[in-house]
UniProtKB/TrEMBL annotation:
GO biological process terms held by the UniProt record: respiratory electron transport chain
Membrane topology of this protein: Multi-pass membrane protein
GO cellular component: a single term: plasma membrane
Cofactor list: heme b
Native source organism of the sequence: Cupriavidus campinensis
PANTHER family with a match to the protein in the record: BLL0291 PROTEIN, CYTOCHROME B561
Record localization: Cell membrane
Family recorded in the similarity comment: Belongs to the cytochrome b561 family.
Entry keyword annotation includes ATP-binding: no
SUPFAM superfamilies tied to this protein: Transmembrane di-heme cytochromes
Matching Pfam families: Ni_hydr_CYTB
Limits of the Cytochrome b561 bacterial/Ni-hydrogenase domain: 8-177
Protein's name according to its UniProt entry: Cytochrome b
InterPro entries in the cross-refs: Cyt_b561_bac/Ni-Hgenase (IPR011577), Cytochrome_b561_oxidase (IPR052168), Di-haem_cyt_TM (IPR016174)
């Protein structure tokens, strides 16, 4: 594991921002899916599934990258409660980034729906067809989406707090890679 006195590594920053865009897109697409009964629903669903698989693959790469390129330490001036909140929120974010695509894939499998990506590429079902399991996973996926939205909003608020109020280099370490 490498750690430097610098901010986040370039691969870490690229993965962070790519996933940020994809996750925000997924949340918006999800809202669009549940808010429409138009023919656009199927197009949104197809896009949602494809981006979900991309997020699943990227989070796995991101986890490996995090072991290779350790994040820089948090500022020593940060209060202990904020330090613990930062750790807890990152664990929750990583957990949700991993769980949400798997719950969605499992939900579709339990509902008997194929997970078709581009063209004829189709993922195998990961759960047996089961209506009650489908309903349970559908509810879990919805609750997880709200939880993910809440944690993302807190993450953005914390980044802005560090960048605009504390000015402690935390935000800059992820935007420009400058030291904390």
């Amino acid at each position: 594991m490498r750690t430097t006195g610098r901010g986040f590594s370039l691969p870490s920053r690229l993965l962070h921002w790519a996933m940020a865009v994809l996750i925000l897109a997924m949340l918006c697409i999800g809202v669009g899916m549940v808010a429409t009964v138009s023919p656009r629903y199927l197009a949104l669903l197809s896009l949602h599934k494809t981006i979900g698989v991309a997020i699943l693959l990227l989070v796995l790469v991101r986890i490996i990258n995090r072991f290779i390129h350790r994040p820089p330490p948090l500022p020593r001036s940060m209060p202990r409660a904020q330090h613990l909140a930062a750790i807890a929120s990152h664990v929750l974010l990583y957990g949700l980034m991993l769980a949400m695509p798997l719950i969605g894939w499992g939900m579709l499998s339990a509902g008997g729906y194929p997970v078709v990506l581009a063209g004829a590429v189709q993922l195998p079902p990961i759960l047996p067809h089961h209506a009650q399991l489908y309903a349970c996973l559908r509810q879990a996926h919805a609750v997880g989406a709200y939880l993910l939205l809440g944690v993302v909003l807190l993450h953005i608020a914390a980044a802005l707090y560090h960048g605009m109020i504390r000015r402690d280099g935390v935000l800059e370490s992820m935007t420009t890679g400058t030291p904390r």
